[in-house]
User: Which sequence fits this backbone?
């Protein structure tokens, strides 16, 4: 058997992503020992019941002692607290990472507090479901999904290699890019879609002329796909928008501009322009299916043909 | 064996919906004989190869002769042509219906041309996939989905019963409402979601700073769900927006207003307001799953746990 990549892994925060990491790290034998830290006693107790780690700590500082790899799996708004809690307990040479959907802010919050001699390399697995909590995780979550690693120019190559190897070991495709680029790319591929989904579900709920019952009943016409995204964890997403404000507002501005153009085309009956856009968007869908980032099965008819 | 509901069914237009209807009508033994009409010889030939009907006609007029139930399954912008093509060939007492995603415009386009003695009752199955054409259809498409029937105040009760029975026989739940109400309800549950999806995919494609490759790669963060909807048939959707202009512009106006409020909350860092919206939208998702209009399985991690 190949030796494990890391001896001791500590995951701080045992939600969907944290609990998927510990399950995958164990399933694929990437580490020898796993410690979970969570400041919520109920979550920690649930993780213990599930038996997905070796040690369970309420205190993050205690949990990271002697760890070779520490991954903060908490909402982006809570990473500075994590850095403060662990900074005096980290082993020299330990790798510290995270899984936040925003990277620039995580760097600004964590880096100043972490001691020299510790390798801080932020990361973000572009994977998830609409569920949260310790029960929501599963070992296959990262399979064939992209995980983005954001090293600094002076990051230690060996530490970077090991972290990349860890994500690859969980089945992810890994791409490295700067934190700044990450935040722009994710603003359009993830943050704006969530914002739009939350917004349309809110708009629908507030319409006086259409009841919630009608909206739910007839949701198979397209609306239900938005509600799935809009069921994602509220704390996590509040933090994403607050911490990636500039990039989100930039792509949102573009979206608004385009939407007004579309609104005008509808008002003036410019069918050709609508048709051209609707044809162009099909090609992008085809690319995503070709790249294996979504299934080609006709998913609108979910209860029908598979 | 129970007698078939209708002796002769004619379906005009053999795309996703038309070909699903003929498959379902045969599978559930709702009719004795099926005629398909399509003005596209390639589509008609493909339907013949699939062997899903008894007769195949290029000419809609010829196809409806002697039919007891005629269903126009063409884009909303083409129903007037269908009415003109069939009006002199319909049997007295025949039921004429459609499946368009807009109902007011269909009534305005078809009703003036149809002869007295024919029962015209528009309908709309709220079901579909992102695929189109004769091959895309399947008999189970309408199972446990809602089909909306829009009778007039003076519609013949027996004819209405038979049409409702036909949809119920294909496994659909049937709800009756006015064409006007239909167009408002669908504007929010279907038309606006499609418009938003087309728009965001267009915005993403036009960003200079992010490549199409990056957008596709990292689409699992939310974007890919929009691309699925934005891969729907361009002709059908162009017609929907042109023919349900007023209701679409009304709900789009509300959406824009709400989106500007959200934009402002992000700009000013109003986390509590964001959190409240994101919590509220979860409840609607729960309702949709409870009503059986979507699966509860964690679908973001599509290749993972089922």
Assistant:
């Amino acid at each position: 058997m190949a030796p494990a990549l890391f001896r001791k892994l500590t995951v701080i925060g045992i939600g969907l992503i944290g609990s998927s990491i510990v399950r995958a790290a164990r399933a694929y034998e990437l580490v020898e020992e796993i410690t979970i830290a969570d400041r919520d006693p109920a979550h920690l107790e649930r993780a213990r019941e599930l038996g997905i780690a070796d040690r369970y700590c309420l205190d993050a500082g205690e949990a990271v002692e002697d760890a070779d790899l520490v991954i903060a799996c908490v909402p982006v708004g809570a990473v500075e607290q994590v850095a403060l809690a662990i900074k005096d307990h980290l082993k020299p040479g330990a790798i510290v990472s995270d899984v936040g959907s925003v990277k620039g802010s995580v760097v600004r919050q964590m880096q100043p507090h972490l001691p020299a001699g510790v390798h801080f390399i932020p990361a973000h697995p572009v994977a998830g479901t609409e569920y949260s909590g310790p029960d929501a995780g599963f070992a296959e979550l990262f399979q064939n999904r992209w995980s983005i690693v954001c090293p600094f120019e002076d990051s230690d190559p060996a530490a970077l290699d090991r972290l990349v190897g860890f994500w690859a070991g969980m089945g992810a495709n890994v791409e490295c890019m700067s934190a700044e680029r990450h935040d722009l790319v994710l603003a359009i591929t993830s943050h704006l879609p969530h914002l739009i989904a939350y917004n349309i579900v809110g708009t629908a709920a507030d319409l006086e002329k259409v009841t919630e019952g009608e909206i739910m009943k007839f949701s198979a016409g397209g609306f239900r796909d938005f509600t799935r995204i809009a069921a994602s964890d509220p704390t996590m997403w509040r933090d994403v928008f607050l911490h990636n404000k500039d990039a989100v507002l930039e792509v949102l501005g573009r979206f608004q501009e385009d939407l007004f153009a579309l609104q005008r085309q509808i008002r003036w009956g410019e069918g050709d322009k609508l048709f051209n856009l609707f044809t162009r968007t099909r090609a992008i869908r085809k690319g995503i299916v070709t790249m294996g980032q979504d299934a080609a099965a006709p998913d609108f008819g979910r209860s029908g043909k598979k």
The beta strands of chain A are 6-12, 31-37, 55-57, 69-72, 95-98, 119-120, 123-125, 146-149, 173-176. Chain A has two domains: 6-177, 181-290.
